Amino acid sequence: MIEFLRPDSREPDQLRPVTFQVGIAPHASGSVLVGFGDTRVICAATIEKKVPRWMQQQNEPGGWVTAEYSMLPYSTLQRKDRDISRGKLDGRTVEIQRLIGRSLRAVCDLKKLPGHTLWIDCDVLQADGGTRTAAITGAYVAARLAIRQWMHYGALKENPFRDSVAAISVGIYNDQPVLDLNYPEDRDATVDANVVMTGSGAFVEVQSSGEEAVFSNDQLHELLRLAGGGINQLTILQHEALENA
Hints:
This protein is α+β, with helices and mostly antiparallel strands.
């Protein structure tokens, strides 16, 4: 019997080393450099005292949370053109920044952000798989740091976040369900999924697809089980980063 090995020798249910370096962008209200192994993303949160025009036009109460995402040209092995040089955002960028915004809004009471917009900017410094999951996980930490600062100065009365949120990738690599795919695994996986969950264990979003393959109900349940375990670990690390900030 051939022993199953991942490219970096991790166990199937083992996260890559996860790090949070807070305060990386001093002009932001809250910021963190999050690392999932060799994937590194700067997440910076700022708060503006205004809301989108559509909210003003429809007299919507409360505030808004939104995100922007980009991969810097040197984040990949081959230089990636900036979106501005092409004159428009590519479909992947739009998808990911909408996902980040949805994930944060799922755990935020927008009525507790009256007249304010919480912006999260996620910039990928180095990509080795899982950039969207690292961005969501870091975005929550940056957002909480920003809210903490604004509450300290009296600009907000209370914390609008009802729960934490984090994300992790899972997939089937060499016929084995695995957690937190790096780039070689993501490239060669027959099934991959991105799972967003709250700290209390509720699902926010599950993106799953086969790559020229199909997957069974049992395999899907195993992937979700792995994701749940990974999210539990990430939630603990998020709370520790916030406590130590």
